[in-house]
Write a structure and sequence with these properties.
The structure is a single chain. This protein is of the alpha/beta class. 40% of the residues lie in helices and 14% in strands. It is built from nine helices and nine strands. Strands 1-2-3-4-6-9 form a six-stranded mixed sheet, sandwiched between helices. A three-stranded mixed sheet has the order 5-7-8. The termini are far apart.
Length: 278
Amino acid sequence: MTSFYEPNAVQVTSTAQGITTITINRHHRRNAVDGSTAQRLYNAFIAFEEDPTQKVCVFHGANGNFCAGFDLHEVSKWQETPSETYSGPIVDPDHRVVGRNLGPIGPSRLDIKKPVISAVAGYAVAGGLELSLLGDIRVAEEDATFGVYCRRWGVPLIDGGTVRLQAIIGLGRAMDMILTGRSVSAKEALAMGLANRVVPVGKALEEATKIAESLLKFPQACMNVDRANCYYSVYNATSFEDALRNEFDTGCKVVASESVRGAAKFSKGAGRHGSFSI
């Protein structure tokens, strides 16, 4: 079995200001992810996390589609025999979910430590839907389509779809999408909270980058502790009290630094009347 090597399947750029852009670039497959692309996506997000100069990530797909899921053309070649070109989680009988290890489609098991904004154009379906859920904010173009299209082929959600989707849009709406596999338009996605903003075709990346730039202006430790506490309360808290305790304990650690400096700016007149020019 042969494999076509694609050196540019994942493209990463970063700015001096602190914005990393991660791009899936397999447009001949509507940016469906194969094994090597999954590994490269995973590596790209780890590198973003570990780089202290990079503060916000913009995640998108090239050439008019976000991601059409895992590449079923690759899966179809496996048949009943082991793949010679893919040795990832799907075909490894000993693979287990352990911490932040590699998921079938790459970074799906990461609780990424800094903000991620997904810029969604075209299809974000099956595993591509799951990847879009890595974003804290999803900007969708007017023609974007979300859906559990893998329902048709007997391919389950194994990259966090059953975990993140219901946390974002609620169990009832998630069940509708998961059981029926139906298409969800950008307009409906906005109404249900799956998309945060809808923009004209061709503008998602631009809008996502603008949002990223706006986040750079804020005190980063405070923003990231609030972000982390939201996720803790949804996924990890054992009780309401535990969530409140975690919020207080972690939040207080930034008060002595960023909060005091921010209060000093306010006392001198900055930020009055809701102004974000600080």
